[in-house]
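Subject: Re: docking follow-up (zinc ion)

Dear J.,

Thanks for your patience while I sorted out the input files. As discussed at Tuesday's group meeting, I've set up the holo structure prediction with zinc ion included as the bound ligand rather than trying to dock it afterwards. The sequence and the ligand SMILES I used are pasted below, so you can double-check that they match what you have on your end before we go further.
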Amino acid sequence: MPDSARYSRQTVLPEIGPEGQRKLAEASILCVGAGGLGSPALLYLAAAGVGRIGIVDFDRVEESNLQRQILFATAQVGQSKAKAAGARIAALNPLIAIEAYEGELDAENAGPLFKDFDLILDGTDNFAAKFLINDAAVKYGKPWVYAAIQGFAAHVSVFNHAGGPCYRCLYAEEPTERILNCAEAGVIGAVAGLAGVTQALQALQIITGHESFQPLSGKLWTLDARTMEARTIALPRDPVCACCSLPPEEIVLSYTPQVCAIDEVREIGVAEAMGLTGAVFLDVREEYEWAGGAIEDAQFWPLSQMMEGEMPDLPQGRTVVLYCQKGIRSLQAAYILKAKGLNNVVNLAGGYDAWRRAQ
Ligand SMILES: [Zn+2]
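The structure tokens for the complex came back this morning:
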């Protein structure tokens, strides 16, 4: 039974009321990923009294997570995220049921898991996982709440809900400009928090369903957290979408985990890079990093600009050595430039850090 004191500040709202609270108590939500998005989302969903919450995460808590993954305490470094997250929200609200799945969502377990929940919340940080969530959600008829963050940009939408589009109506195939992993790209915890809290609010709107609520189905909400300028862009459904235009039984789930190092781009060490004659060095870090020191005579063009489709003007006949701080963002940049037809790019393994150590 709903605890009347616990939920009184929301049941007093006419948009929620005892009826909305009952719907929340009867609802089930599966959160894929207990990271920067999942942390705030799970806390608010549990606090609001969502009756059953599933948490899928294969990872362990690391010290570098604590800056944004507010479910976890310093003493939990090394513990399973799924279990630690489950324990945290159980302590917050003992009236709800919590199921923690330690493992990665894949093409085999997505079906059985999704069938068992009313709504899916996406707390992942890569395209491969988001496509899998989308395809499984469409196949099993579940709405899902999407979010992505990059730097100071946050995006939130609702897919496969009330006749609206799915994620593949927006992106038919995995973009070649692979999404940056938070480990390297940089993120402010509060920006991830804004996106995760917005996701929780979307889920609560969909479940309680008051007529005044307008969930982000068919709309992409974007926020630039530098200026706090928010926009809502219409997302039409693609009538020939490769996923949601198919009958469910024809949707085939597949999942290839995203790996950071693929051997299509040649990587070279510092010694080899120093020995190159006539090579151009291209720094793809952000301006504040470039300003703090760079390789002599290097050119500058941040990866973030390439991801917005703006390409640097590079010589065709010379080797271009891409570098960033540690060699991961520059690898992404190399793939983008290769996709644009520039084949003379190599990646500096270890990045500027390795370069400086060799001086
Ligand atoms: Zn679609």
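A couple of observations from a first look. Confidence is low (pLDDT under 50) at residues 176-180. The CA atoms of residues 239 and 245 lie 6 Å apart.

Let me know if you'd like me to rerun anything.

Best regards,
T.
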